[in-house]
Amino acid sequence: MKVKILDTTLREGEQTPGVSFSIDAKVEIARKLDEARVDMIEAGHPAVSQDVTEAIKRIVAERLDAEILAHSRALISDVDAALACGVDRVAIFLGITEKKLQAMKMTEEKAIEAAVKSVQYARDHGVKVRFTAEDATRGNYDFIVRICRAAIEAGADRISIPDTVGVTPPDRMRGLFSRLSKDLGAELDAHCHNDLGFAVASAVAAVEGGATAVHTTVNGIGERAGITPLEPFAVALKVLHNVDTVDLTKLPELSLLLEKHSGIPVSPLQPIVGENVFSHKGGVHAAAVIFDPQTYEAFPPSIVGRQREIVISKYTGKVALEDRLKRLGVALTEEELMKVLQAIKERPEVRSYRDVDLLELAEKAAGKKLEVQVPKKIEALVLVKCESNVYTTAVARRILWIRGVQKVLEISGDFDIEVMLNVETVNQMNEVLENIRKIKGVTGTNTRIILKKFNSDS
């Protein structure tokens, strides 16, 4: 089974409300997608605006390994705009449901005529063509076959079948693609929206039914609830069907890049790239994972370049605590270990213990200074100064979207905003600081590393 990934972060993704990528950001994203070995990159719809056209031309000039596509309505003027960008393929779309045809004041025959005319025109100009039967999953099956066959005869070598409003469950998607692959005999793309949360499952089902390419976006961004997120889809194909698509170790880096350029924070629960995905908190879970990771992990974190974390909290058991301390180079007696565990249980309000806090408890239990490895986490306070004519709340909200930022406060005095960071390395801290300074309206920052925290009842 060979499945291609068409990533449409730069086209579908930019249709996310509140998202607008700069040209430089689009080029950077395209490069990273190419490094991850994405097969096709849908770079934008050039008829939208001049900056989209310029971005596509810049991406084409990069001479990436990925095939570069431009989006186009079934209009000669749109196709011309795509051709002018020098892309490898033009992706021509046309709504095919009864409601969409009525809205466009088109009969089925007129729609077929428009599809054929635009596909032939693009092919006559030497580019490959994908035809998209928009909203196909809600369309009349016989008409889908008729218009797609006409597009294939006109020169389209790929047909995209979108679940435009995300209402098609996996079993129906599998059945639809199975029928179409037999009736059309063409390369089929699946484009699944996530309105009902079906996007990943329906995309996998489409592949099982015969789709040879799936459209994704990094972090699943896109219109409304977005589309199939690249990260869980690529991993699902590997885990469920042993199908290789992209370089899975590049996914966390891509996710961070999109978080930075889109301004949309990644949920800690987001599959593959969320902060909590490989964290284990419950005592039974943690002990079992330490003994055999497969007990509570669908796949090893290492396949996506991440590491497992055992969270220390009131739920922690002896096995997990001992393992965490050993990782820090601390070996306690049974009695000392139980003292630390009891101290943790007596502070149920503490959500999780940092290494530095855990080491302090261990030293109290042992009654001596311990020689330990340097804790990984770095906490810092950043004071941010803004221009006088800038709406401080808007800047604060932008800062809150940056990964590594834990808390943002608007304050009085010489500075306007206080930011609390929690990162693993100095390089990560510097990256967060750089992202804060890039925000429009920020004029300066002042950073202080947190050495130790004290609570009112400690």
UniProtKB/TrEMBL annotation:
TM spans (from-to): none
Pathway membership, UniProt: Amino-acid biosynthesis; L-lysine biosynthesis via AAA pathway; L-alpha-aminoadipate from 2-oxoglutarate: step 1/5
Enzyme class: transferase
Keywords, alphabetical: Amino-acid biosynthesis, Lysine biosynthesis, Magnesium, Manganese, Metal-binding, Transferase
Single GO term (MF): metal ion binding
Pfam families, per database record: AsnC_trans_reg, HCS_D2, HMGL-like
Catalytic activity: acetyl-CoA + 2-oxoglutarate + H2O = (2R)-homocitrate + CoA + H(+)
Enzyme Commission number(s): 2.3.3.14
Co-factor requirement: Mn(2+); Mg(2+)
UniProt-listed InterPro entries: AIPM/Hcit_synth_CS, Aldolase_TIM, Dimeric_a/b-barrel, Homocitrate_synth, LeuA/HCS_post-cat, PYR_CT, Tscrpt_reg_AsnC/Lrp_C
Chain ranges of the Pyruvate carboxyltransferase domain: 3-252
SUPFAM superfamilies per record: Aldolase (SSF51569), Dimeric alpha+beta barrel (SSF54909)
Gene Ontology BP, a term: lysine biosynthetic process via aminoadipic acid
PANTHER family xrefs: HOMOCITRATE SYNTHASE, ISOPROPYLMALATE_HOMOCITRATE_CITRAMALATE SYNTHASE FAMILY PROTEIN
Family in the record: Belongs to the alpha-IPM synthase/homocitrate synthase family. Homocitrate synthase LYS20/LYS21 subfamily.
Protein's name according to its UniProt entry: Homocitrate synthase
Organism name: Methanosuratincola subterraneus
